[in-house]
């Protein structure tokens, strides 16, 4: 690593910014469009580019950590790391399927096509877990540099915009009254734990893998369904522009 950790004030400000997105997503009226807002599609492209060009390549380095820590050969260690990414994807796929089934059940009863209260809270709980890990990683990443942190911050704040917009649309009243505060608390709590507790590198590698799988599922869930009427060009543009930024960071 070889670099001094970033100031607590910088990462704290970033955590507060994340929390403000959770709290204020309902006020961003320009996102409420059909077809889907181009800004949301752009944000989705950025998040996917970050996962594939930044998080996933770092997993190879964490694979070496796994190899040393648990005595596996290199290929098995990498498989273990990527399995954790798969677990993240499967977990969030399961919660999304639960929400979808709940919406269909409510619609069949003649009610609004919204998730039931219990299913909505399960979704909030899983989102809070992912959010807390992302906030924790503000303080603990493979690369402690300022540019790397800035890249991480931009990608995650755009990811939260996409994810929170989708979560709020499932149950606006519950999200505005309670859900957003839970997510904001998870953000600040994850950041605080990151300031107080430094996990072993093998655990940080596992968290990175889990986050990568979860983000891929959440972003594609928001972009792929036909009813979203998503915009490909902004999604593509976000992915390409952010890929160029990450490659530029690597070159420097």
Automatic annotation (TrEMBL):
Which keywords fit this entry according to its UniProt record? Membrane, Transmembrane, Transmembrane helix
Source organism's superkingdom?
A: Bacteria
Q: Which stretches are transmembrane?
A: 6-28, 40-60, 80-99, 120-138, 144-166, 178-194, 200-220, 232-251
Q: What is this protein called?
A: Uncharacterized protein
Provide the species name: Qipengyuania atrilutea
């Amino acid at each position: 690593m070889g670099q001094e950790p970033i100031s607590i004030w910088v990462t704290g400000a970033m955590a507060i910014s994340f929390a403000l997105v959770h709290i204020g997503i309902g006020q961003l009226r320009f996102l409420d469009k059909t077809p889907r807002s181009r800004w949301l599609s752009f944000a989705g492209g950025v998040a996917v580019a970050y996962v594939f060009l930044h998080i996933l390549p770092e997993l190879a380095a964490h694979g070496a950590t796994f190899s040393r820590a648990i005595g596996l050969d290199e290929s098995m260690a990498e498989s273990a790391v990527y399995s954790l990414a798969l677990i993240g994807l499967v977990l969030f796929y399961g919660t999304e399927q639960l929400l979808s089934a709940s919406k269909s059940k409510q619609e069949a009863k003649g009610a609004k096509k919204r998730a039931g209260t219990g299913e909505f809270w399960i979704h909030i709980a899983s989102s809070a877990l992912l959010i807390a890990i992302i906030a924790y990683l503000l303080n603990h990443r493979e690369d402690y540099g300022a540019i790397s942190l800035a890249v991480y911050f931009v990608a995650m704040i755009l990811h939260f915009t996409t994810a929170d917009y989708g979560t709020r649309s499932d149950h606006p009243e519950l999200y505005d009254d309670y859900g957003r505060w839970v997510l904001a608390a998870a953000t600040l709590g994850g950041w605080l734990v990151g300031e107080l507790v430094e996990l072993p590198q093998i655990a940080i590698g596992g968290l990175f893998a889990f986050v990568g799988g979860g983000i891929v599922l959440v972003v594609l869930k928001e972009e792929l369904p036909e009813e979203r009427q998503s915009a490909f060009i902004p999604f593509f543009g976000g992915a390409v522009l952010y890929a160029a930024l990450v490659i530029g960071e690597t070159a420097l």
